[in-house]
Amino acid sequence: MKVLIADDDPQLVRALRITLAAHGYEVVAAPDGAAAIALAAQAHPDIVLLDLGMPRLGGVEVIEALRGWTKAPIIVVSGRTGSADKVEALDAGADDYVTKPFQIDELLARLRALGRRTATSTADPVVRFGDIVIDLAAHDVTRAGARVHLTPTEWRMLEFLARNPGALVTRQTLLKEIWASEHVSDSGYLRLYMSQLRKKLEPDPAHPVHLLTESGMGYRLALD
Question: Quick check: 149 and 202 in contact, CB under 8 A?
C-alpha cells in the first residue's frame, strides 16, 4: 500500500518513512502543498498523510484539490489542536485527524483501518463514451478498439474529467492539479490541450458532444 506524506518537517518525514517502510508500506513524500498535489497525481497513493501548515498551499487547499479527483483516504497529522481546524479539515474532505505529537501505534492503527476500507472499495473504473474506452487503472485509452496515444498532460487532463463524469471541473482546479500551482494563469494552455483531446476523441472536434466547455468556468465530460 502506498502512502503519501505531505509535511515540511524533514525529521518527521524521515522518521515516518522508516517506520512505515518497516511495516510494509511504500512511502512517497512532498515538502509543500503544491508538490503534494503534483505527486498525488503522479503516484496515485492509497492513503495521504497531510500536515495543515505547509508552505505554498495550505493543507485544507490540498484536501480540496485532491477531493476534486480522488477518493483516497486523507489523514490530517497536525499540531493544530483547535476544534475549528479539525472541523474545517474534515469538512474539506479529510477522513481522520491525528494531533501532533502522536503515538506511532495510534497512527498505524488508523492507517490499517483506512487501508481495509480502501482494499474493499471498487477498483479504478473503466469510463466509456461513444466509441472511447478509458481504463483509469491501466492509463489506457482506446477508440473503436485502437489505442489512442496521449501526452502525459493530455492524460492528466482527461483523467481528472473522467474521474468526475458529468461534473464541472473548473479551470483553476485543472491548472492547480496539472501544473501544481494556483498561480499559473490560463494563457491558452487548457484550450490547447482540450483542442488536442477533441481531435483525438470527438467524432466532430469542431462540435464536441463529450468534452464540453462551460463558458467562463471550466470543462465537463458528458458520457451520453
Answer: no
Residues whose CB is less than 8 angstroms from the CB of residue 152 and which lie 6 or more positions away in sequence, other chains included: none
pLDDT in tens, 56-79: 888 999 999 998 888 888 999 988
Q: Which grid coordinates are listed for 216?
A: 467562463
Cell of 34: 503544491
pTM: 0.55
DSSP calls for 160-187: HHHTSTTSEEEHHHHHHHHHS-TT---S
Fold of 126-221: Arc Repressor Mutant, subunit A (1.10.10)
Domain chopping of the chain, boundaries: 2-119, 126-221
For residue 79, give the 3-state DSSP assignment. Answer: coil
> Which residues 6+ apart lie within 8 Å of 115 measured at CB?
1, 46, 47
Angstrom distance (rounded) from CA 69 to CA 205: 25
Question: Which residue spans within 17-156 are E strands per DSSP?
Answer: 26-30, 47-50, 74-78, 96-99, 126-129, 132-135, 140-143, 146-147
Length of the chain: 224
Question: 2-119: what CATH class?
Answer: alpha beta
